Amino acid sequence: MVVRVPPPSAQPRSRLRVLLASGAAALALAAGSVVPGMPLGAAPQQAQAADSGDKTLTVAVAQGIDSLSPFLAQKLLSTSVSRLMYDFLTNYDAKDNHAIPGLATKWEPSADKLTWTYTIRTDSKWSDGQQATAEDAAWTFNKIMDDEAAAQANGSFVTNFKKVTAPSPTKLVIELKEPQATMAALDVPIVPKHMWDKVGDFGKFNNDEDFPVVGNGPFILTDYKVDQYVKLKANKDFWRGAPKFDEVVFKTYKDQDAAVAALRKGEVSFVAGSPALTPAQANSLKGDKNIKVNEGPGRRFFALAVNPGAQTKDRKKFGDGNKALLDQKVRQALFLSIDRKTIIDKVFQGHAVEGKGYIPPRFPEYAWEPSASQTLAYDPDKAGQLLDEAGYKLKGDKRVGKDGKPLDLRILCHATDPNDKAVAKYLKEWWGDLGVGLKVDCLDDVSVPWFAGEYDLAFDGWSVNPDPDFVLGIHTCAALPVKAKQSAATDDFICDETYDGLYKKQLAEYDPAKRADVVGQMQSWLYDSGYMNVIAYPNAVEAYRTDQIKSITTMPEAAGNIYGQDGYWSWWSAVPASGSGDSDSSGSGSSTGVIIGIVVAVVVLAGGGFLISRRRRTTADDRE
Hints:
The termini are close together. By secondary structure, the protein is α+β, with helices and mostly antiparallel strands. It contains 14 helices and 25 strands. The longest helix is centred in the last third of the chain and has 18 residues, at about 510-530. The chain is globular and about 75 Å long.
C-alpha cells in the first residue's frame, strides 16, 4: 500500500511501498469516456471512435502518478507506465516468468560470474528515429550509480556494480564487485541518452514537460494530467510488434464505485480496483452482459508495517514514532491480537489467502511459513502477557507505561482502499480490548507522513516479483533515506547487520535451492522481529468489457492478473472486440488472445530461481 505499489512489484504499501499491484492498490476525471479523436468528456459506449476508426483501451485505476521519471517512479501505476514507455534489458515470459530477451537478445557471464556481457538488439529505435544502443543502457546504469538523485527508484540494482561500459553499439558489459544472481532480472527502464543527458536535477525532473516523450517501448506517452489521466499511443515500430489498440488511457477514479459504474456504462474498458475490486463489486458485475470478471492468485501481500524509529543512512533520527514500538515484545503483542481468519472471512470474504511469510504462495520457490512453535497466532492472552513484561500494565481499561502515559498508537490508512478501513475497525476493537488505543489516519497520500516518519504503524503492501530481491532489499540499511523526510526505498527504516548479511548472501547465491533457503531465513527474521506483519495475500480481482476487449493475456497465463504485470503483455496483447487484428503476434514471449475466465485456484508457477523478474513494491496507494 503506499502501494507503499511498486513495486513493483515493485510501491510503502507503494507505501506503494505496494506493488501488487499490495497494489495493491486515482486518476479522477470528470464523467465521460475517453476515446481517440474525442475530448475526454465525451461518453460513447464503444472503444472505437466513429470518425477516425482508432481504438482506445481505457483503464480505470485508483491511484495517481508519483513521477513519470523512471529514476523516481515507485507507485505501481507509475512503474507500469514506465514498462510501456521503455524497454528493459530482459523481460519475463507470461507463462512461467522465465527470462526472455528484451533490449538485450542474449546475456552471458564470465567463468567467475563477475563480468556479464549483453548483446543489444539492432532493431530497436527510439520514437524520434534514433537507434537504441548499448551506450543508452550504459549511460542509464552509470547515471544511477553516480547520481544519488537518480538512484531513488532503482538504486538497489546497481549497488554491486563495479563498472558499466559499451564497447560497441551492440555490446554492453557490466562488471560486478561480487557475483550477483539477479543479472537477468534487472528491472531498470533503459532511457535515451541523447534526451536524458540534458536533465539537470534528477531529483526534481518528472519527465512530464514535453510530449510526446521519446521512448522505445510498445507505447509512447503523449499526454498527462495530474490525478486525471495518462495517455499513451501505440508504437507502430516496436520491435516485438505493434499493439492492437491505438491508444491506452489510464484514468483515475478515487471513488472505486464510480469506476465500476463507468465500466458498466461502457465509459471505461477495464477496472483494476484499489488495488482489487471488493467482493461486493465483483459479484455485482458477474451477471452483467459484456463484462468479464477475472480473478487469480495475487502477487501482493496486505500487511502492517511498524515505524521502529525513522533514521537516515548516517543514523540521524527523525520523526515522532511511538518509542513503545522499539520493543519487540510490544510489536509481537500487537500482532498476536490480530485474528487473520476473521479478516479473510469478513473483509476479503474468501478472496484472499491467510498471510504467513513475506513472499506470497504464488511464488512457491520462495514462499515460507513459520514453524508451529514460531507462529504468532491469534492469542490475546499471550499478547497481554507480553505487554505486561514490556512494562505496559493495565490501569482500568488502558495500558500505561512506566512514564504514566497510556499506550496510544496511530496507523496510516489509504483513503481509497476499503480494505484498510475495514481492517482498521477490527484493529481498534481488538487492540482496544487489549488496552491499546488506536487512531486511524486515512489519507489520500500517505507518503508525506510516511517519509517524514510521523506515524506509528501503516497498512502496507507490495506487488512481489518472481525474483524477491527488490522487496527483500527495502529492509536493508542501503534503503534508508540520505536525508530526513526524503523519498527512499525503505519500508520501515530497518537497519540490521544480521538481515543485511543474509541479503548479501542470497544476492550472490546462484544455486536456486540454496538461495531459496537464505531467502527463507530472511523471512523468518522479519517475522520474528515484528517489524512486518503479513495479514493476507489478496487475490487479483478485476473486470473488463468483452464488447471492447476481445482477448487479453494474464500473467501467468493459466490464472493470473491483468493489471500490474511483470511486463507489458496485457496491454500490448489486448485485441479490440470490434477490430480485425491477428491475435497471435510473432515474436512474443507469451501467447496472446486468451479469453479469461474467473480463476480462484492458486497456481504453482513453473521455472523460477534467479533468472526471473522482480517487481516493485506496491500498496493500495501503491508505492510500489
